[in-house]
Structures are given as C-alpha cells and as structure tokens.
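Fold this sequence, please.
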Amino acid sequence: MKPNQYLAIKLWGVHMRSYDFYIKTQQAIAADANAPIDALYERDNKWVCVSDLAEGHPFRADYERLLDERMQSNKDANETVKAQDAIRAKAAKHWGVKE
C-alpha cells in the first residue's frame, strides 16, 4: 500500500488534531509495516483499526461516510470519463479520424 491510501490514519489524525507532518509520518510507518488498510494507530506493536472500535463509536460512522463519499466520487469520475470517451468517438467518426 502507498502511505496516502491509509485514509483512516489521516481521518483519525484530524480527529485528534494532530499535525499534518505527524499524520503523514504515521501513514508512511503503516505502509512500511503493511498495516491493515483501516489502521488508526500502532500501540504495543499492534495496529488498532477501525474494525476494532465498538459498533456505536462515532468515528466508525465518520469513516464509513468518508468511504461512501470516495466511492461516489470515483463512480462519478468514471461516468465522466465514459461520457468524454463517447464524445471523442462521436467527434472522431464525424471528422473521419481513426482512433
């Protein structure tokens, strides 16, 4: 994993009001350690993860909302790319350009 893929660490860091450099360092440590993707922090050589939090913990809801927003954003981006490809294909056909 790449450090910036550890979104839970970033969100947790913001929640804890950590400095940006600290959050990025923790993400890099998690990536080097191949920590679970939902890792929050390391304690006693064990990664504490979102999945370890109690079911009603408010952070879980925040994290799940963030993931839902990212998935929707990715879906919207994919639909935009498909629409752009269709427009390019139509224009290429109109102008007789081979793709």
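Helices lie at 7-15, 20-33, 58-95. The chain has one domain: 3-95.
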